[in-house]
Specification:
Residues 1-31 are annotated as: Disordered. Residues 16-28 have a biased composition (Pro residues). By secondary structure, the protein is α+β, with helices and mostly antiparallel strands. The chain has two domains: 31-203; 206-281, no CATH class. It contains eight helices and eight strands, in the order αβαβαββαββαααββα. Helix 5 packs antiparallel against helix 6 and helix 5 (205-219) packs across helix 8 (262-274). The longest helix is centred in the C-terminal third of the chain and has 15 residues, at 205-219. The chain is globular and about 60 Å long.
């Protein structure tokens, strides 16, 4: 019995034409909706920036939390809400929705779990209550949702300058776009810039980290549930180079020996209260009680 040798496979045969173009990666969870919402707000000439867990996807690693938060100037919240409603996003007006509680599980006994079970996970259960929120259902059964939240700037980032409409300047100390090529590339962590989507205004990594440090200083012993949320956020952003080279100088003392010192953070807090950077009526914290943490 004789065998015939099979013809050798030829790769990239010119007669077969060029290889198909490489397809861009599927955007991470929440990115498409965030881009659509940003476009609506941009077209309404309302200043904003995207915030919350989704930004970690751009700066550090993908976090699959169905929560899309936008920070809006307090006096523009109604206009932003109206713009989303006009675009087909119905505002949630339920009086029993879990989103009305800082601790989402506080509302589950009332049958008000419109937000979906994902956000009741222990790491995500605590959150700032939005000025307006929307449940974006992704299927006809209405059991897979994304939460869209509009947060008042004075609750989240009063330390930032007044927000402006339009793209940030190239040297803006706080803001950049989700399409910026300087964002970490998509490999083993951060997703990379959302180049195929409408650009979304976001904080740069340093400003984003400082937001959670500022909020931690405000909420420690004032609202420890939120304080835990803020610490969970900035602990994911720990990076020696960033802390030493990128953050504003006042935050430098809290980094040492490869970790953040809560005692040094509280000393910064005391100075910020004294200098008027934090409310004067915050609870008195005994720094020594936190020694060794």
């Amino acid at each position: 019995m004789s065998y015939q040798r099979r013809p050798r496979r030829v790769l990239n045969n010119p007669s077969m034409g060029p290889p198909p173009p490489k397809q861009p990666p599927t955007p991470p969870a929440g990115a498409v909706t965030a881009s659509k919402i940003a476009k609506i707000i941009d077209e309404a000439d309302i200043p904003y920036f995207l915030w919350g867990w989704l930004i970690l996807t751009l700066h550090v690693t993908e976090i699959k939390v169905p929560e899309i938060e936008f920070v809006i100037p307090d006096d523009k919240l109604e206009a932003a809400t109206n713009a989303l409603v006009a675009a087909g996003y119905p505002q949630c007006e339920s009086e029993t929705c879990v989103e009305l509680h800082i601790d989402r599980t506080a509302g589950t006994g009332e049958g008000g779990n419109e937000g979906g079970l994902e956000l009741l996970h222990s790491e995500y259960r605590f959150h700032p209550v939005a000025g307006a929120h929307f449940h974006h259902f992704q299927d006809e059964r209405k059991n897979v949702t994304e939460l869209i939240a509009l947060l008042p700037k004075n609750d989240i980032a009063p330390w930032l300058p007044e927000l402006k409409v339009g793209s940030p300047a190239q040297e803006d100390p706080d803001f950049m776009l989700s399409t910026d090529p300087s964002l970490p590339k998509s490999r083993g962590g951060a997703w990379g810039p959302w180049t195929e989507l409408h650009p979304v205004k976001i904080q740069n990594r340093a400003s984003y980290t400082e937001s959670f440090l500022w909020l931690s200083c405000r909420d420690i012993d004032r609202d420890n549930n939120l304080g835990m949320r803020w610490m969970a956020m900035w602990r994911r952003l720990l990076d020696v180079e960033m802390w030493v080279q990128m953050l504003r100088e006042k935050w430098h003392p809290i980094w040492g020996d490869g970790m953040v010192s809560i005692v040094e953070l509280l000393k910064v807090r005391e100075k910020m209260i004294k200098d008027g950077e934090l409310p004067k009526d915050l609870p008195k914290v005994v720094v020594e009680d936190y020694a060794g943490r």
